Amino acid sequence: MDNTVLANEQVVDGRGWRSGAPVEKKQLSQWFLRITDAAPDLLAALDTLERWPERVRTMQAKWIGRSEGARVRFALDRPTGGIADIEVYTTRPDTLFGMSFLAIAPEHPLAAAVAAHTPAAAGVIAECRRQGTTEAAIETAEKQGFDTGLRVAHPFLPGQEFPVWIANFVLMEYGTGAIFGCPSGDQRDLEFARKYGLPVVPVVLPPGANAATF
Fold it and tell me: Strand 101-104 vs strand 178-181: parallel, antiparallel, or unpaired?
């Protein structure tokens, strides 16, 4: 074991780039600076750096990573681990009506609560922690998940409920560590839905198209 912290770029195929030791995600007690509060000022300042190459300014803007969206709460059918609902941050609330599942990151508190009494869930979470941590690694990794058996109510469709999955492509570091899956609007959601036989609900259809066969 390396017994050290690695950057995403230092992880290759789930192993340390120098030693080849397996990499594992762990929770640490540490200080964080809320740099997101300064995001608007940082982005505005990039426009004043006229001597910086455009590609560098674009790279910095992506690193700052400011996005605008909505927070949506989904009520659980039964509280688990003291959690009664799941909050999702989304930049595309218009796709809510194409939802077919809700997925949480392996590091999400609800995932830990489920794993505490479900060995199969704990095994999936352990496997997820061994995968690569770069965006490229997550994009190319085979989609893997675990059905928690929990369900959430749709906030705008009375009477409709959807399954809650633990999924390896959901990042705890982005948003709230939870997403609503819209397979008809997102490639990763589509791959996950196809693997586990989840519905694909079209949000927008051409005139005269049949939602069941489109």
Answer: antiparallel
Segments forming the whole domain that contains residue 166:
70-196
CATH at 127: 3.90.740.10
| 75 beta partners | 85
Handedness of CA 17, 19, 21, 25 (dihedral sign): negative
- Tell me the pairing of strands 161-167 and 101-104: parallel
The sign of the dihedral angle between the CA atoms of 61, 5, 138, 72 is negative
pTM for this entry: 0.79
Q: Which two tokens stand for residue 189?
A: 């959601």
Are 6 and 14 a contacting pair, CB within 8 Å? Answer: no
First to last CA, the chain: 50
Q: Do residues 146 and 83 both lie within one domain?
A: yes
Look up residue 166 and give its amino acid. I
SS3 content of the chain, % helix, strand, coil (to 5): 30, 20, 45
Q: Please indicate, yes or no, whether residues 57 and 74 belong to a single structural domain of this protein.
A: no
Q: Residues 150-165: pLDDT tens digits? A: 999 999 999 999 999 9
Note whether residue 18 is domain-resident.
yes
Q: Are residues 29 and 125 in the same domain?
A: no
